[in-house]
Amino acid sequence: MTAAGLPMEVTAEGLPTRVRIHEVGARDGLQNEKTVVPTEIKAEFIHRLADAGLPVVEATSFVHPKWVPQLADAEQLFPLLGDIAPHRLPVLVPNERGLDRALALGARRIAVFGSATESFAKANLNRTVDEALAMFAPVLARAKDAKVHVRGYLSMCFGDPWEGPVPIAQTVRVCRALLDLGCDELSLGDTIGVATPGHVQHLLAALNEAGVPTSRLGVHFHDTYGQALANTFAALQHGVTTVDASAGGLGGCPYAKSATGNLATEDLVWMLHGLGIETGVDLDRLTATSVWMAEALGRPSPSRTLRALSHKE
Amino acid sequence: MTAAGLPMEVTAEGLPTRVRIHEVGARDGLQNEKTVVPTEIKAEFIHRLADAGLPVVEATSFVHPKWVPQLADAEQLFPLLGDIAPHRLPVLVPNERGLDRALALGARRIAVFGSATESFAKANLNRTVDEALAMFAPVLARAKDAKVHVRGYLSMCFGDPWEGPVPIAQTVRVCRALLDLGCDELSLGDTIGVATPGHVQHLLAALNEAGVPTSRLGVHFHDTYGQALANTFAALQHGVTTVDASAGGLGGCPYAKSATGNLATEDLVWMLHGLGIETGVDLDRLTATSVWMAEALGRPSPSRTLRALSHKE
């Protein structure tokens, strides 16, 4: 690596001093890859991500295997991660059956996934928004009883492929409902990547006005239109300290029509470290991990930082 | 295009209401492409960019053809653009010989290019920083006499591949020198794409303290590490209203070691329009132009917005 291998650390005003990256590559990423990755490779991937300093590595999903065949091996995978503290390994849980499976394996952190729009709730869950919330209610009640931490993912917070721009009040309503059901934190998803920084700051302000503290909000941006990092910077300025990202940008082939384009963790870490914000992540180890995973998948990573750093080696 | 085809317009606080995009695809972009593009295609490209509403389209370079063979046809190209107002068509001029050629063709807007670091001045111009400034002095004096508008490009304002992070005071010194020589505006270049938003805001503040008004500053970010749009947002917050970008991200193959990664104009326009900032650019026409140019070059565009929009058609 040359002398230019790291950015100059220059803090912008009013930003948090530390950000917790919620790594979604092993779940949201691999779930959207065409290649089904062997269980042992997944386990090594998660171990390497945890070893690179990522505090939270979403591990898998307990959705019915019929819907997500890429993650059908949750029962085989989770025991292979036994040396990582369970609170670092959230898992996706759609319903009570999924919760049973997760609890049986010792999961201590789960996530449910709702939608801010009716169109996506119908497409993804075959339910209305309110029917989906009703489905989560017993999951959340039982999770609370078991003292399990619950994250609520909310898709389509900014735009929706069928409905277009999503009104801020509509997103706020569903956020409020998820918190009232007992979610400990929310992840605001720009599932199709259309948001811009002003929209992000206005949604966050509207949530604050509705009584939701920023400390309970994470952001989950997609880079479909190249906006993810600008939106993240806008969210940091609002005080957000939890940011979702996917190692190597896993989760959407940049050359395919279906590109979902998760924000690449490497691009995020580059910005955060340049801003003097602590993450605990070792960028070299993270980059090596994503290069290794890209080879296992047989396709190049869309992360720009990853490409720039790995070409220098 | 679906209902999601445009972002919701939500203005962030304190941003300019209008931004002038300085389009560099036909010069900075094509100069760095391996393919030498026929003169007629270049002329059509520039016409289409101007017709798409880009107010300024950098047209070509009067550097010696030996150094930039891709732009050796400046004398043939410029007359083909006669129906576009010359003040919309800046050209690059390295020295008095280049100025003679540009003036003979009726150019009314030129750009010189300096370096904030000694290493790059040596590599690019085979001169020290101060020797390069001395070379520009008579060019600027004569341009002023001819009432020609002069932009000063400054490379390596943030980081340098040999020297690493560039001290802010060093960049400020060379900016000041270029303005004192008579430059009407400066373009602050992050040539290797390592800058992060705090660094951008601190450099702009330091320039203001040194007596340089923001109105004379443009920014020129590269997306090598994915930071270009976040840095642009930070610059807008500081009041910058001139932003350089390259149609389709031309100017660095994303798959090659030499990737320079100009910020794609489409990604920039998506953000600006989402922020409710006027640009005068018709995104559909711009996208169609970049798709056409990518076909002429025989390679896909690295612009994410371009890919997202063109896949929907």
UniProtKB/TrEMBL annotation, chains A, B:
Family matches, as InterPro entries: Aldolase_TIM, HMGL, PYR_CT
BP GO terms, sorted: ketone body biosynthetic process; L-leucine catabolic process
Segment forming the signal sequence: none
Superkingdom of source: Bacteria
CDD domains with a match to the protein in the record: DRE_TIM_HMGL
Domain Pyruvate carboxyltransferase: 19-287
GO terms for MF: hydroxymethylglutaryl-CoA lyase activity; metal ion binding
The entry's keywords: Lyase, Metal-binding
Any Pfam family the entry gives: HMGL-like
Keyword Metal-binding: yes
Entry keyword Magnesium: no
NCBIfam families: PRK05692.1
Assigned protein family: Belongs to the HMG-CoA lyase family.
Name this polypeptide is given: Hydroxymethylglutaryl-CoA lyase
Provenance organism: Streptomyces inhibens
Lineage: Bacteria, Bacillati, Actinomycetota, Actinomycetes, Kitasatosporales
